[in-house]
Automatic annotation (TrEMBL):
Lineage of the organism: Bacteria, Pseudomonadati, Pseudomonadota, Gammaproteobacteria, Alteromonadales
Keyword terms of this UniProt record: FAD, Flavoprotein, NADP, Oxidoreductase
InterPro entries: FAD/NAD-bd_sf, Flavin_mOase, Flavin_mOase-like, FMO-like
Keyword ATP-binding in record: no
A GO term, aspect molecular function: NADP binding
Pfam families, per the entry: FMO-like
Entry-linked PANTHER family: DIMETHYLANILINE MONOOXYGENASE (PTHR23023)
Organism per entry: Pseudoalteromonas rubra
The protein, known as: Monooxygenase
Entry's family note: Belongs to the FMO family.
Length: 576
């Protein structure tokens, strides 16, 4: 018999509202506490410090960001502005009648587990209301990873007479007009901040300790995350997505050149057809370019320079697309190429009027803008949580058990947090009902250790700085196995359009509604059929051939060719 628990959800951002929705859908009694006066978390725009900046546009596409059973792609552009995304979240709350379960302007001050395993949650009504204590059976922590700003320690900081600020306080570039500004770091917000400040500042320099893996927002006219297809991520990562450990990757690619030779032979006729089709549809543009001498336009020259900078930063980053967090906007690259911003190494020290870089050069600065990320902050909990990677599946603390779940406390290198939070919420909701359970303590400890070792290996360059980083596609598949909703080939047989887009289109969360006890197959199939495919049919055909050869070589015992992802053929959930 299913249980119905009294559950507290902390935070009403994208993670908190989907946790509230999934818990209510599983017939639990839910109270969601939100400190701000509106839902949305960081996407609840505020004039004061915190939240998004005025020009913020999400860096994950609409398809990659929306929840699996509530999409709003029709007639929409590829990316949400922060206003549009906040409206989407508001519509989601209204559609699933969540508002009556959300307590706004309510700060969670303290959470402690009682001897009987239940949770005592102390809250305070803002701004000057009374404190209140309530008892809950379970708690979902949904405060996210953008909680506590990280500002580096600088040698000579006490001497610097200028201003040191964090990008969490940034709203627009006006305060930096005619200033001399150093920007440190270039994550997702940093790419916009550099561009906007360099447009108005007297001078601007960008300081990077290492490079950055940069994606333009649009690749061949499509959002960059449209390249994150199940087919592409099904192939072993050493084929294209990683460069570390370098000697191993070189060895594997050398072996692959030999073992994939049959693929190149099989694809030769299709390559000829593809070339002929391309020439016919472009008026023999490629053929004419071989004989025509044409000077490059100014725009073509600029695009080459932009690509050169992107390549340089990628090399300096020390990893491939699957080994780090990607900067999914190239706006700041334009500032560098246009001469509005100068690229500099990491900062060695500060002096009275500016900064000294690692290469010994100096720069007089009024302001240092730190786009240096955030830390999780669970100070309201009466326990030491450690890092996200110290939790079982980044969700459950091994010493606490299944009544406390951290939802959305991860960040994918490619992909989006909200679909991850949704999948975690579906898992937690089923655990609360008793439909699912966690493994034994020994198994949890073993899995945490294995995952930690994997994290240090895969994200070797950033494992200390970004302990909450996960591989999006494999993490989602692992969660779906727990929930019992991992897609199965039989769900798509007889629907060739959906099957093709499922494999070759953007990695959409709607695929996880195809099967399972809370499936919505009609909605899922409709969404999958509407997905756009950014790669050409020829490119996908080549990858598909590589994938099946990898499955074959793995089957005969060459373990390094084992596919990174594979479809489920049975229910692997942790059901009782």
């Amino acid at each position: 018999m299913k249980r119905s628990l009294n559950v507290a959800v902390i935070g009403a951002g994208p993670s908190g509202i989907v946790a509230t929705k999934e818990l209510i859908a599983a017939a639990h009694q839910v109270t969601c506490f939100e400190m701000a006066d509106n839902i949305g978390g960081v996407f609840n725009f505020r004039e004061e410090e915190g939240g998004v900046y005025e020009s913020c546009m999400l860096t994950s596409s609409i398809t990659a960001t929306t929840y699996s059973d509530f999409n709003s792609k029709k007639g929409a552009p590829y990316y949400f502005t922060h206003q549009e995304y906040h409206q989407y979240l508001s519509d989601y709350c209204d559609n699933f009648a969540l508002r009556e379960s959300i307590k706004l302007s309510t700060k969670v001050e303290h959470i402690v587990q009682l001897e009987d395993g239940k949770w005592q949650v102390t809250t305070k009504l803002l701004p000057e209301g009374d404190s209140k204590t309530q008892i809950f059976d379970a708690v979902a922590i949904c405060t996210g990873v953008h909680k506590k700003a990280m500002i580096p320690e600088f040698k000579g900081k006490e001497q610097f007479k200028g201003q040191i600020v964090h990008s969490s306080s940034y709203k627009n570039a006006q305060p930096y007009k005619d200033k001399k500004v150093v920007v440190i770091g270039v994550g997702e917000s940093g790419a916009d901040v550099v561009k906007e400040i360099s447009d108005v500042a007297q001078s601007c320099q960008l300081s990077l300790r290492r490079g950055a893996y940069v994606f333009p927002r649009l690749v061949d006219g499509y959002p960059n995350d449209y390249l994150t297809s199940r087919l592409y991520y099904s192939m072993p990562s050493w084929i294209d997505r990683v460069v570390n450990p370098r000697e191993y990757v070189k060895k594997q690619r050398k072996l692959g050149d030999k073992l994939f030779f049959p693929v190149r032979i099989l694809m030769l006729p299709l390559a000829v057809v593809n070339t002929l089709y391309s020439e016919l549809t472009t008026g023999f543009k490629g053929l004419r370019s071989l004989f025509a001498k044409k000077e490059k336009t100014a725009e073509e020259i600029k695009q080459e320079k932009i690509q050169d900078v992107i390549n340089e930063l990628s090399i300096k980053s020390g990893g491939g697309v699957a080994e780090q967090f990607s900067t999914k906007s190239d706006r700041f690259i334009h500032s560098i190429v246009d001469g509005d911003c100068e690229l500099k190494p990491g900062i060695e020290s500060l002096y009275e009027n500016g900064v000294v870089y690692k290469d010994g050069t100096q720069f007089e600065a009024d302001t240092i803008m730190c786009c240096t990320g955030y830390q999780n902050d669970f100070s309201f909990l009466d326990m030491d949580i450690g890092e996200s990677k110290d939790l079982y599946m980044n969700c459950f603390h091994p010493k606490v058990g299944q009544s406390l779940c951290f939802i959305g406390a991860v960040r994918p290198g490619a992909g989006s947090i909200p679909p991850i939070a949704e999948m975690q919420s579906r898992w937690f909701a089923k655990i609360c009902t008793g439909e699912l359970s966690l493994p034994s303590n020994d198994e949890i400890a073993r899995q945490i250790e294995m995952d930690a070792q994997s994290h240090e290996k895969v994200f070797s360059n950033v494992t200390v700085r970004l302990p909450y980083l996960v591989d999006y596609t494999s993490y989602m598949d692992k969660l779906s196995e727990k929930v019992g909703c991992k897609p199965k080939l039989r769900d798509l047989i007889g629907n060739p359009v959906a099957l093709y887009k499922f494999y070759c289109g953007n990695f959409s969360s709607s695929q996880y509604r195809l099967s399972g006890t809370d499936s919505k197959k009609d909605i899922a199939l409709k969404e999958i059929r509407e997905i756009e495919v950014s790669r050409t049919f020829y490119t996908n055909a080549v990858m598909f051939s590589y994938y099946w050869f990898c499955k074959f070589y793995s089957f005969i015992g060459i373990k390094s060719f084992k596919p990174h992802l594979s479809l489920s053929i049975r229910d692997n959930s942790d059901r009782k």
